[in-house]
Every structure is written in C-alpha cells, then in structure tokens.
Amino acid sequence: MEWDSDSEPSGDEEGFLLSDGGPISFNIGSFLQAGPCGFVVTDALEPDQPIIYVNTGFELGTGYRAEEVLGRNCRFLQCRGPFAQRRHPLVDSSLVSEIRKCLDDGVEFQGDLLNFRKDGSPFMNKLRLVPIYGDDDIITHVIGIQFFTEANVDLGPLPGSLAKESARAGDRFQSDLSFHRLVSVGQGNICREYCGILQLSDEVLCQKIFSRLTPRDIASVGSVCKRLYQLTKNDHLWRMVCQNAWGSETTRVLETVPGAKRLGWGWLARELTTLEAAAWRKLTVGGAVEPSRCNFSACAVGNRVVLFGGEGVNMQPMNDTFVLDLNASKPEWRHIKVSSPPPGRWGHTLSCLNGSWLVVFGGCGRQGLLNDVFILDLDAPHPAWREISGLAPPLPRSWHSSCTLDGTQLVVSGGCADSGVLLSDTFLLDIMMEKPVWREIPVKWTPPSRLGHTLSVYGGRKILMFGGLAKSGPLRLRSSDVFTIDLSEEEPCWRCITGSGMPGAGNPAGIAPPPRLDHVAVTLPGGRILIFGGSVAGLHSASQIHLLDPTEEKPTWRILNVPGRPPRFAWGHSTCVVGGTRTIVLGGNTGEEWMLSELHELSLASSIV
Amino acid sequence: MVIKHMIEDDCADNGIRVPNVRGEILSLVVAYCNKHGPVQNDSEDNSRSDELKTYDADFVKVDQATLFHLILAANFLNIKSLLDLTCQTVGDMMKGKTTEEIRKMFNIKNDLTPEEEEEGLIWKNLVVASTPEGEEEFRGENQWSYEIW
User: Fold this and answer.
1) How crowded is residue A461: how many other Cβ atoms within 10 Å of its Cβ?
2) Element (H, E) at A383
C-alpha cells in the first residue's frame, strides 16, 4: 500500500471508491497496519466465478501465489489451509449466504469475513465485492477488494484434528468502525481546469515518473510550479535519476569521488550535464618515476594513478610499476615492489577491471611484439603480477586500443602487428572466467585498420571508435572518422555514427576535430565523448576540446570552451580518468623529457576542495 | 457502463471540476487485468509478449484525466505492471519538453517566485558547448587561453 503516511487521511488520491457513505468504511489505522490490499477479478460469465486475476497484495496477504489460485473460486480462503476440503466452522455462514445473495442480485457486498492463509493462519478479510456490468446489463466480472487485518480467534490445533473447536467468534473480532471517506482533493493548486498530475502523491511522482527522466528534463520539471520545485530539491530523487540515466557502474564510481557527498547528486548532475565547472588545473606532486621513460601506459584505479612499463633510454623496455595516490594530502609517485613483473614493454595497454585489478596486454618488448595478459591486484596485501594464459589470443601487437565492459571484460582492437601490418580486429576477454578465453567479435565489415585510435564505452555495451592512423589505400593517414558498435546485439556490427551507409555521409554534423592519433577520449556520464590532444596533422591546435553525443538523433561535433591553461601535450596512452570526473594528463608540458612532477587535470565537477 | 455507486463527484467547493465518468476507470482496470492476468505458457512467450505490448500501447491512448485516474487506481490497488505502464506514459510525455511546454501540457499554474524560476533557467543558459552554426556561449568571467601545439 503506497500511502504517504504523513498526509491527511482524506488524502489526495483515491476518489473512486467507497463513495456510498455507508455505515462501515475502512479505518486508516487498519490500512497502515494491514499492509497491502488484495485485488481479485473473477469471470462472472464462467461457472462458479473463477479467479482470472490477483494482484501481489493478494499473494502477500494470503500466502497463495497467483498460479495456485487462477481458475478457482475464492471460497478456498474459507478453508483452513490448502488441504482442507470444507469451510472452517468459525467462518460466519450467514455472511457467506449474504455474499451469495448479493452476487445473485447483482449488488455490492461489504463485510468482514474470517479467512485463512496458505499456512493455516487466520485473518479478517475486510471484503468488498463489486459486480461489473457489461454492455447488455449482464454482469461480466466481479471484483473483490480485500484488506487483511488481524483475526483474534482461538483455532486450536492445526488442520487434521477433528476435535471440536470452541467458537469464540463474535466479540473477539477486532473491528474499528470509524468513518472515513476517501475523497479526491487537489494539492493546493487551484486551477480552473482539471490538473491531473498534481493529484498524484509525491512518492508516485518521484519514484515512478521523475526517476526515469534525464537530468535535463528534471531541471525543466523543477521550474514548473512550487510543488515540483520542492520535489526536485530532493537529493535522493537525483540519485535515482543519475543512476537511471548514467548506469550503476558510473554512479558507483562517482560516489567514490571525495567531496561528492557534500556536493550532492543534484549539483553533480547539473555540472556533468552543463559542464559549467569544467576547468584545467595544474597539480604538482612529489616523488619521481625513475629511470625516466616515455611511452608508458597509465590507468586509474579509484583515486590512484598507476603507471607501468615504458621505453627508457636506449629504447629499453621497462617493467616497473608506479602509483600516485591523489587522495593523499601530499600525493607523490611511489615505486611499488611487486613480484613476478611481466616482461618490459612499451606501446601496450593498461586497463582497470574488477575494481582494483590492473590488466596489461600486448605492446613491444625486448624480443618483439607481445600478446600476453598480466593482472595485478593493487589492493592485495602483497601485490603480484600473474599471467593469464588466455586461450586463442589475438595477434601480438602494439599501439592498439582497449576499453573495458561491465568492469570485467577487456576489449582490444586494431594496432600494429609484426612487419608493420595494421590490424582491424576486435577481441574480447572475460577475465572473471575460471579459464579466460579470448573471443574475436565476428563482424561482416570493419572500419579501415588502424593504430593509435580510441575506444570509448557508452550506453552500457556500445563502443565508439575515433581517429587513429588508418590505412587508406597504400597510405596511412590520420583519421577523424567515428564508428560505433553495440556489443549487446546478437550480431554486432560496426556502423558509421550517423547510421548512413553512403560514402561521406557517415560523419557527424558540426566541425569535426582535426584528424589525429594517440589522442585522449573521455566518456562523460550520459554517453557524451570528449576528444582532445594527440598527434594532429598540420598546424591545428590539439588542445581544443571536442564534444560528441552519439545518442543524439543527429550526432553533432561541438567545441567545449574550458577556462584554465591546458597542457601543451596530451597523449592517450599517458592520460587516465580518475573518479569519473578528473582527466589526468601525465607529461603534458614537455616534449622530450617526461617530467612527471607536474600534472595537468581537466576536472568536470567542482567537487574537489 | 453502469457503476453508478462507484462514482465519486465531490469537488465543487474547492473549484476543481472532476469529470463525471470516473466509474469507467474501474472497468478499464478490470479489462487490463483480464488481459494480463492469465499465466502464459513458455512456448507462447514471444508472440504473447508482442501482443501484450500492442495492447498496452493502445491501452494508454486515453485522455489525461483518464490516465491519471488509472495511475491512482493502479497505485491504490497495487497493480504494479499497470502502474509502471501508466507512469512510463506520463514520463514519455515529459521527455525533452521545456518548462512552459510541461505547464501547458498538464495544465499547471506557475506559482514560483521569479528567483525560483531563474534557477531552472540557469541549466539551459549554461550549456558551454558551442553549436555548429558558430554560436558560442561563453561562460562567466574566466578567459580561456591555449597554446598552439
């Protein structure tokens, strides 16, 4: 029963029942104690009024499931338990006769009847039966509305006993007979014409209607009138809205952002929708990543940035691991001692799965290209890398792209294989399986093969691929093409983002970013993608931020103006996203030496102190 | 439909005129339950669920007053699937609408102070991304600067 228990009993909702003002009506107190109400529909045209529908209130109140009672007459409730054959003697037979008479006469019945649940326990069924007339004034259905209240009866031993039970009915039954009428009253919004929506309770409005709208729609709703303005101030509603709009994985990540609770979901939703708080910041951190290197991979685990491998002096592949905890009061790079590190490499991918696991795949090692998979649990007491021997691995490669699905599956695509061949395949690995197996995603057509592109996950299991150095005939050119694939489909296929198959019509509207590779792509809650950085052809600025919403009817490139000083360089392989709202660019100010004491951060929400 | 005794018509004093046909709501509810009630066999699942989808889509093609009374009824009678269906319909009506469109659609009077109304407008005015036509909406006081890479 969804009563707003703070509201007046002459409440705001039900205007269509209990109108005849008869001497007995339902006490609100017994409503709230009794729990759900039962609702039964029987077919009056079939012999003996078989049940054709019961609601969950009936199931909860009686203990009988719908499947057990459909097709039967309701009188089984007068028997104590499912195995009794006859009506229990304590059931008032004169009431039963009255029911019969009312049904025969085609009028309503109202009364309190002793009934029994499936487990044999008794209850008082405050019952109202209403015949429903069809077109020819013939009764087609009868509906029953039950309120379940306590029955104060002494039944003696459970069914099976043939001993006489002392009948102490009558005065032992509880019945509060105060009078209440349930009328429909407007919620203080007096208008000349009918305004239906404000007749609904806060609970129905928020939980059933508003929670399914997008943050922008809630903002529109909140400006409609005072009542809706108040309702949309509720942070719990905003949490439901964010969860429904962005998915539970994203909301879970956002919850871990320090200061998010102080900001509140309402503000977070607004900032992540309008991007009004987006700004570039510079962070100075301590510690050092030594020996120095380039082409390492960075990845975020919670509020920590992890760095693995890279290319040292003399093109030496490295295999050490560093962690930077941004939650610390004085963040500094720390080399973590881990056992059994993977072979050194650069041009590999580092991804975070299962909350705190780091997954390394591929890259270029001392003896050539790799296709091995190593996992490290950062939160384990003694972190150790272990190799996953995934069966049927993809070709060894470097400068491929990767992303994660559902927090447990690794997706890799493209890259550069031996002898410089560009790849265009897509592989998936579920690391949670006992024996993980690589699975190639079979597709009829793939976009031109490429390296240095990005894969961004949005809308559950959809992936957006952008840019990279792509094969174009005998040449390799920087690309600004956008392709999408939906891995939740039975037969996933790559599509041009506009859905068109015509050459040239596959590009989004608006001004596309200059073609690039090894850029940064960030997925915002709600599915929009931010693109910036990378190696850009010609003299174009790579620091401009481009925004694309693949869920729009007509996806259009937009430019995001962000205050603050952006880094000079931003590379995809050394940029990661912390807490869903902070994009950390490593080594952004220097071209030659990778100094990691100064970081650049693109923050999207003002939740940080 | 003759369910005279179910009709509640009592709002003349507070200025709200309630349509006099709400007795029909119950018959609609009954029809819905009749359609959705019987337990389906597994083998018929697909065609039956398509059939139910069509039925549901047609079922909610009613005027607003009826729709809201159906919500009230489904809520009171605890019929979850009908409540979900009707509420989803109302939600869909609101999607993508501006504040004024919502007011007009649901006949709601604006009783907000100008300050309260302003708050919602800020959401709209602070879209920072520029549109393809070259219109750019700059934010606040901060000048942005960038270097050519």
Assistant:
1) 16
2) none
pLDDT at A416 over 90: yes
Q: Which residues contact B4 (CB under 8 A, 6 or more apart)?
A: B23
Cis omega before residue A291 (within 30°)? yes
DSSP state, residue A91: S
Average pLDDT of chain A is 82
Q: Is B124 helix (H, G, I), strand (E, B) or coil?
A: helix
- Among the residue ranges A271-280, A378-387, A473-482, B5-14, the one predicted with the least confidence is B5-14
Looking at the complex, does the CB of residue A566 fall below 8 Å from at least one CB of chain B?
A: yes
Burial class, A553, CB count within 10 angstroms (exposed 0-12 / middle 13-18 / buried 19+): exposed
Q: Are A343 and A366 in contact (CB under 8 A)?
A: yes
Pairwise CA distance, residues A99 & A85, whole Å: 20
DSSP per-residue string spanning A164-190: PPP---GGGS--------------S--
* Beta strands at A545-548 and A556-560: parallel, antiparallel or unpaired: antiparallel
Q: What angle separates helix A248-255 from helix A235-246, to the nearest 10 degrees?
A: 130
A186:B11 CB<8 A: yes
Q: Let me know: does A401 contact A454? Beta carbons within 8 Å.
A: yes
The Cα of A590 is separated from the nearest Cα of chain B by a number of Å equal to 11
Q: Please give the Cα distance from A182 to A180 (Å, whole number).
A: 6
Q: Give the C-alpha distances (Å, rounded to integers) separating B48 from A53, A70, A417, B40, B59.
A: 17, 18, 51, 8, 16
Q: Which amino acid is at A297?
A: S
Determine contact: A10 vs chain B, CB below 8 A: no
Kindly state the helix (H) or strand (E) to which residue A406 belongs, with its residue range.
none
Segment A451-479 shows an average pLDDT of 93
pLDDT in tens, A23-37: 323 333 333 334 568
Q: Per DSSP, what are the bridge partners of residue A346?
A: A364
- The answer, yes or no, to whether ipTM is higher than 0.90 is no
Task: Answer whether residue A84 shows pLDDT above 70.
Answer: yes
The residue of chain B with its CA nearest to that of A541 is: B148
**Stretch B128-142: mean pLDDT:** 40
| Mean pLDDT estimate for chain B | 69
Beta strands of A32-179 (E only): which ranges? 37-43, 51-54, 109-116, 122-133, 139-150
Inter-chain Cβ pairs, chain A and chain B, closer than 8 A:
278
Q: Is B21 on the interface with A (CB under 8 A)?
A: no
Tell me how far apart the alpha carbons of residues A114 and A153 are, in angstroms, rounded to a whole number.
Answer: 9
Structure tokens at B113: 């102070």
For residue A18, pLDDT over 50 is answered with no
Residue pLDDT, tens place only, A544-597: 999 999 988 888 898 888 999 998 889 999 999 998 889 999 976 665 556 788
Check pLDDT > 50 for residue A190.
no
Dihedral (CA of A523, A524, A526, A529) sign = negative
